[in-house]
């Protein structure tokens, strides 16, 4: 019997949906909470663990018998990969599986900020009618310059979506794309400082690394065009949230949308919560109901491949 656990606490209904994809001789359980001891308890006797947002620590990687940790999605910065290597635990992910969902969410957030859709909705729900007030700061996206920080799977899909708006698209990242790729996506490479200075909208779609942690801070926010927008669907740690909040309060930025935060779930007192010009969503960009079956099927296939003694697809292997 193979035991697989989901480290993020999920309701029974979601657990049953995942069970439908498992071989008959596999069992599935979920943690009762995110508390460290509950996480350790659920891992006892487990062959495989699936994780979305819960940190997978060195202590968890040392669990006897644990063969692999599979990320539900892509970003693995909350998984202790060094400990995984030390204990012979494989780490896998579903590379590119949520790229379309995230890119569509980013586009939706850009439009919502640009057109004051959330502020308008909240006002009408309160019985107000601030048509003239919101009209002063509502802008069109068409023809504007958009800067994409991190032209990976998500960034490339976003660039394609933006092409329909006639946007000029700048991008930056660790590696510059080939001339053919740049031409296909109609994007132009720029250094981060130049991208921030030129873009009307900046979308963060990069991984969280030592290089990108705190990359968007008081100094780099100061480089952005007055009245520009920032959307973060990457990782909360890329942004110094207190500095972003100050840029919004001062009016230097017209708006910002965050789907990710330095601490999740968001702690009381987070400086971005409650600001009129901020849209905050609970890390839902990668989630899509119609992406559930393909993603679960792919994860289970990767784990079954490990059991058979073969290697999963290289693009899904982290450790």
From TrEMBL:
Source organism, top-level taxon: Bacteria
Annotated ranges, domain D-isomer specific 2-hydroxyacid dehydrogenase NAD-binding: 107-285
Keywords, alphabetical: NAD, Oxidoreductase
PANTHER family on file: D-ISOMER SPECIFIC 2-HYDROXYACID DEHYDROGENASE CATALYTIC DOMAIN-CONTAINING PROTEIN-RELATED, D-ISOMER SPECIFIC 2-HYDROXYACID DEHYDROGENASE FAMILY PROTEIN (AFU_ORTHOLOGUE AFUA_1G13630)
Family from the record: Belongs to the D-isomer specific 2-hydroxyacid dehydrogenase family.
Protein name per its UniProtKB record: 2-hydroxyacid dehydrogenase
Organism per entry: Roseibium algae
């Amino acid at each position: 019997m193979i035991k697989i656990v989901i480290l993020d606490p999920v309701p029974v209904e979601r657990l049953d949906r995942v069970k439908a994809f498992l071989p008959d001789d596999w069992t599935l359980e979920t943690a009762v909470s995110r508390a460290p001891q509950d996480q350790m308890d659920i891992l006892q006797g487990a062959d495989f663990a699936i994780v979305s947002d819960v940190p997978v620590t060195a202590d968890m990687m040392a669990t006897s018998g644990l063969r692999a940790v599979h990320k539900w999605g892509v970003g693995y910065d909350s998984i202790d990969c060094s400990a995984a290597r030390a204990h012979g635990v494989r780490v896998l992910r579903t590379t590119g599986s949520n790229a379309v969902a995230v890119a569509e969410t980013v586009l939706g957030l850009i439009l919502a900020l640009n057109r004051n859709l959330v502020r308008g909705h909240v006002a009408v729900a309160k019985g107000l009618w601030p048509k003239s007030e919101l009209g002063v700061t509502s802008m069109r996206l068409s023809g504007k310059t958009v800067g994409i920080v991190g032209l990976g799977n998500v960034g490339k899909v976003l660039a394609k979506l933006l092409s329909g708006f006639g946007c000029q698209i700048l991008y930056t990242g660790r590696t510059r794309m080939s001339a053919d790729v740049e031409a296909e996506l109609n994007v132009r490479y720029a250094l981060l400082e130049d991208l921030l200075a030129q873009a009307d909208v900046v979308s963060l779609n990069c991984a969280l690394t030592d290089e990108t942690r705190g990359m968007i801070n008081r100094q780099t926010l100061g480089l952005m065009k007055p009245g520009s927008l920032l959307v973060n669907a990457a990782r909360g740690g890329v942004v110094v949230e207190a500095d972003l909040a100050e840029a919004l309060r001062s009016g230097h930025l017209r708006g910002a949308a965050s789907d990710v935060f330095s601490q999740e779930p968001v702690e009381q007192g987070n400086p971005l919560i409650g600001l009129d010009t901020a849209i905050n969503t609970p890390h839902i960009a990668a989630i899509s109901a119609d992406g559930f079956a393909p993603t679960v099927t792919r994860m289970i296939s990767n784990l079954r491949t490990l059991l058979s003694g073969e290697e999963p697809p290289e693009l899904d292997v982290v450790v």
